Amino acid sequence: MNKDNASLLTEPIVKFFRGKNFGFLGTVNKDGSPQVTPTWIDLIEKEENEDGHEEIILINTAMDRLKQKNVSRDPRVSISIVDEDNPYSMVTIKGRVVEQTTAGADEHIDKLAKRYLNADRYPAHSPSVKRIILKVKPEKIFYLPPRYTEYMQKIK
Amino acid sequence: MNKDNASLLTEPIVKFFRGKNFGFLGTVNKDGSPQVTPTWIDLIEKEENEDGHEEIILINTAMDRLKQKNVSRDPRVSISIVDEDNPYSMVTIKGRVVEQTTAGADEHIDKLAKRYLNADRYPAHSPSVKRIILKVKPEKIFYLPPRYTEYMQKIK
Q1: pTM of the entire structure?
Q2: What is the ipTM of this complex?
């Protein structure tokens, strides 16, 4: 078991994946320029694989979207998340897409639609769109705990 | 006057810069991997320069931060913004840092602190931090108008 990975996503980080926070996924385009796109995010806290238990971030996208094409060329990603309750608490996760799978991707987007939209089914299913799950292995975390709380209370 | 640039940021896009929306700034690290960081954003709707009138996005950061070092090496950026009132309305702006300046950067961060925090002065001024404005020229816009409005009303 890789203990370094097992402990990467500590409790304050895991909380970012429980609410309706978006992840802003950075990938690199073919010409080397950066690309950022907002996306729903999911976390498998303990997934058994050859390295032992570790956390995997799931991003559900569609085949041939820009981000899917980008990570197929270069799997390195950056995911930035701010807390919906206080955007001055944030985490940036550097990682790598270690697997892409269409298996269970339709059911998975329904599960995310429930959490994000409280919809029983993802409202944008389309026969022409093949959904795919990107599995991201976190490698480095940068976390900023809540700041400016006193201002947040006043402007809400 | 460059008419293409003058019309790039139309009214629905400009609105993203009026509220408290963060911009998620994508840059490219030295090793070619992507980097995403949340940031306050500002817009000069009409700035006169050698090309005539055009819009410039301002990002206020500090000298030697990762994003500042990244854009000094490769000025290409991607900025993703979702609407605070409906995160399913979004814009992604592909652009280029065309200028960096420390002139007026302290006053500018105070102005942003007023808009974002309703603070009279930026709370995190520090003598050890030299602030700098990155001027981003937008080159390509991808805009998604509001979606899922019916779900938004229910979960608020």
Answers
A1: 0.92
A2: 0.91
